[in-house]
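Technical annex B. To support the medicinal chemistry partners, we prepared a structural model of the target in complex with iron/sulfur cluster, based solely on the information shown next.
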Amino acid sequence: MEVIIAKHAGVCFGVKRAIDMAFKAARKYRNHVYTIGPLIHNPQVVDQLKEAGVIVKEEIEDIAKGTVIFRSHGVPFHLAERARQKGLRIVDATCPFVKRTHKFAGMLSRKGYLVIVVGDQSHPEVEGLKSYVEGQAMVVSSPRELADLAGGRKVGVVAQTTQSLENFRAIVAVCLEKAGEIRVYNTICDATALRQREALDFAHKVDCMIVIGGHKSANTKRLAEICRGILSDTHHVEGIEELNPLWFKGKLRIGVVGGASTPNWVIEEIVEGMRCIVSQDS
Ligand code: SF4
């Protein structure tokens, strides 16, 4: 069995930056260092941070003093304001690409465009992004959701950074038909697009795909969806214990991709586990 690992599997620039900033803050400030929600959707990294002293809290109101680290996918505007009011030290690890999306969304709303966000309504990145829009933003995850969009409006479109380009294109196409005026900012991050292209390419070449990353990670889930669209033998795993030997029976080529929040050591551990399973079987 041949195992091929994608060139761009593993943590992206923004997540690596956030992890580095969090460990640095833990070393520098030692006590009372917090995140609101897990720093990234990867339980292994969250555990390592906990050991280093970075505590996960649910709400800003749960933090009385010390340092709060903002996650790579950003925080809502009011939350940042509240942290300042409370006198907390802020370590802003929001990815610069996410900040760029905030800037475009805010600017479009101030210029009178109806801001359409292509994304998942409940994802924290989208919640943060909406807060930079003056007035209401419309969040859509599929072209169907634009059925009731009134014609002739000024429409500005941005995307959650982890969206697929295909979906973004399809939604922009509907906006083009309906809008009187349209401005489009492709805010899909290169890191995401690159991983998606590789995943698509791999899914055509192998007979089983292993997608590695947190089960709550939006970009990893998206990779799994893309692969599954081509190859039903696609499995999303978070840790080595989830590997099932039956997946590899009779397979010649296995492709491995990892989400943008998956540390390289997790990928290496899982690939090692796959090799062990196969060697025991042969
Ligand atoms: S996927 Fe892109 S936007 Fe998101 S954290 Fe990574 S580099 Fe930043």
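Notes passed to the chemistry partners:
Residues 12-15, 72, 95, 97-98, 161, 189, 191-192, 219, 260 surround iron/sulfur cluster (CB under 6 Å).
The first helix runs from residue 13 to 29.
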